[in-house]
Specification:
About 40% of the residues lie in helices and about 20% in strands. By secondary structure, the chain is α/β, with parallel strands linked by helices.
């Protein structure tokens, strides 16, 4: 029996098949930007699913996002369980090809993407993070990693980037890391008008697709 779709957004290529990509949203929630990422992945030939970790709530301002992420942090075990359910759902898609998944995480989602790669190494073989970090032990991971960071980012200072880089190196994992000059946090997200950088966003997307298709 197939699993019912968890709360979230599913995008499937016109051909009906492709390898699976899990998309983990930023602290704004499952908004139009994240849905658009899933749609673009489907257009590129991937089956993409973004779980809704906020269950319908979306923030437009930083204070509202901080409130939502504080509530999520207090219930992080449920969030991790919901992400695991999303992996199982994506694995059961009839048109999914390949024997592993990729995961793309934005900011808050990057933390959960890195964690997922350490607790579910048999499923997660490719990880893409946008301006996010975490502190997991990567010794159990089997994935390759691609990281996109801003040059000027108070949310992800260079010390965080250096920490993740060193942890992945110590675990013998492959990491390709880019920092985009003149950018800040959220540079990839077109709805963040104060931060969006089209040139950097387009380059990061091209690099992401090349990484997923390698």
């Amino acid at each position: 029996m197939s699993q019912a779709q968890p709360a979230g957004y599913l995008a499937v290529p016109a051909a009906g098949q492709g390898s699976g990509v899990l998309v983990l949203h930023a602290w704004w929630g499952l908004n139009s930007t994240i849905r658009a990422v899933c749609d673009r992945l489907a257009e590129a030939g991937f089956i993409a699913f973004a779980p809704d970790l906020y269950h319908g709530k979306v923030a437009d301002t930083i204070p509202a996002a901080e409130a939502l992420v504080t509530a999520l942090d207090a219930n992080h075990l449920q969030a991790k369980a919901e992400i695991a359910a999303a992996v199982a759902f994506l694995n059961q898609q009839p048109g999914r090809t390949g024997d592993s998944l990729a995961v793309i995480g934005f900011s808050l989602g990057a933390y959960y993407a890195l964690h997922l790669s350490t607790v579910d190494p048999q499923n997660i073989r490719s990880v893409v993070i946008f301006y996010g970090s975490g502190d997991p032990d990567f010794t159990t991971a089997r994935a390759d990693y691609l990281a996109h960071y801003a040059e000027n980012d108070p949310y992800e200072p260079q010390s965080n980037i250096d920490f993740v880089t060193a942890a992945l190196k110590d675990a013998g994992r492959s990491l390709t890391l880019y920092q985009y000059p003149g950018t800040g946090h959220w540079f990839f997200e077109p709805d963040r008008l104060d931060a969006y950088n089209p040139q950097a966003a387009n380059l990061a997307w091209e690099r992401t697709l090349a990484f997923l298709n390698r």
